[in-house]
Amino acid sequence: MRKGMGKRDMLAHDNRMVDEVCPSIFLLRKTHGSNVYLIQDTELFLIDAGFPLDAKKISNAVSQFGTHVCMVATHYHLDHVGSMKMLSENFGWGIAAHEDDALVMEGKIPYEIFEMEPLKRLYYRLLAPLYKYEFVTVDSKLIDGDFMDVIEGLKVIHIPGHTEGSIALYSESRKILFSGDTLRCEKGILEGPPPKFNTNIEQAYKSIREKLLDLDFETLLPGHGVPILKNARKEVVRMLRES
Ligand SMILES: [Zn+2]
Ligand SMILES: [Zn+2]
């Protein structure tokens, strides 16, 4: 048993609902939408919250750690904020997001519609209730440089491009970066944002080069795919060189 691991952690591991990817940082298993990370500190922080149909899985997993949760959205897309309405209404969990993306999440400016292949569009239309975008109240509107008092300090890094208000979260002392969709690692392949679904893809890459590479990080916890636990910054440099 890892030093400092409590009974609650053991329970979570036994039920195989989460994996502890770094000390006190857990990745929920088998969510349908984005990766959902849970940080266990004096408070609980959830980084992103999957599709609406992930809500029950998230509440079950989190309930083993505690009840007071702050949910932080890396950006407004449905696969990252879909369950926030249900979780905030049913459990009173708070919501934080960058002030620009909060405007979309609160319904003050429209959700950007992207071109989609006809089959995919049909799929989403048929299953519309499962993928309905529900507006929420964003309790905490974040800006670049904001600091969250969790795992010795988590800094908000504004990285516009994938969406106007995309953010990364950075722990300087632990050299950990949560990147949302701006860096992904699906099937173990490190990539930038998905080519189709960006407000401005050139700006997203500029954010990677000018904001993220300015940070000293070893561990990358991406919005989709597998975490990179070592040499992550070097891997991002290599990815940019080869792309
Ligand atoms: Zn995503
Ligand atoms: Zn996205």
> What is the assigned CATH homologous superfamily?
Ribonuclease Z/Hydroxyacylglutathione hydrolase-like
Percent range of helical residues:
25-40%
Q: Treating each run of at least 4 consecutive H or I residues as one helix, how many helices?
A: 8
Give, in order, the helices and strands. Answer: HEEEEHEHHEHHEEEEEHEH
Fraction of residues in β-strands: 15-25%
CA-atom Rg in angstroms? 17 Å
Mean pLDDT: 92
Task: Explain the overall architecture.
By secondary structure, this protein is of the alpha/beta class. The chain has one domain: 4-Layer Sandwich (Metallo-beta-lactamase, Chain A), CATH 3.60.15.10. It has a 7-stranded mixed sheet. Strands 8-9-10-11-12 form a 5-stranded mixed sheet. The radius of gyration is 17 Å and the shape is globular. The protein starts with 6 loop residues before the first helix and ends with a helix. The N terminus is likely disordered. The site of one zinc ion has 7 residues, from helix 3. The site of one zinc ion (ZN) has 5 residues, from loops.
